[in-house]
Amino acid sequence: MQPTAIILPVAVQAALTLAVLIAMGPARARSMREDHLSLDDRDVRLGLNHWSDQALKTANNYKNQFEMPVLFYAVAAFAMLAGAVDVGMVTIAWIFVLSRIVHAAIHIGPNIVMLRGISFAVGVFALATMWIRLVLHIL
C-alpha cells in the first residue's frame, strides 16, 4: 500500500474541522441577532456575551477539533515517514475519522452526552491503536 493512502482520512478530518468552523459563523450571527447585539458591542468584542446554546455547542466542538485530532495528524504523518501505512492503519484511520464525524454531529446536534461519549471512546480506541501499531512497527 502506498504511504500516501492515509492522506484521504486525514483530509476528511481537516474538512470536518473546516465545516465546523464554517457552521460557527451562522450560529454566532443568529445568536447575536436574537440578543440584539452587534460586532461593536463591548461584550462581543471582549468575548463576554452569552452565546445561544447552538452557538456554544458549535464553538465547543470547533475547539474539540484541535484536541484528539492533533494526535491523529501526528500519527498519520509519522506512519507515512516510517513506512507503517498498511491496510490496517488506513482502516483504523477511517474508523477514527468516522467517529469524529459522528461525535461532531451529536455534539452540534442533539448533544446526547451518552452517545457523544460512545463515539468519543471509539475515537480514543482507534487513535490509541494507531499509535501502538506505529510504535510496534518502529520497534
Query: Which percent range describes the beta-strand content?
Result: under 5%
Strand segment count: 0
Element-by-element helix/strand order: HHHHHH
The shape is elongated
Largest sheet: none
Structural account:
There is one protein chain. Helix 1 runs antiparallel to helix 3, helix 4 runs antiparallel to helix 5 (87-108) and helix 4 runs parallel beside helix 6. The chain contains six helices and no strands. With 139 residues, the protein is mainly alpha-helical.
In a nutshell, what does this entry contain?
The protein is mainly alpha-helical. Helix content is 77%, strand content 0%.
Fill in the keyword field for this structure.
139 residues, 6 helices, elongated, mainly alpha
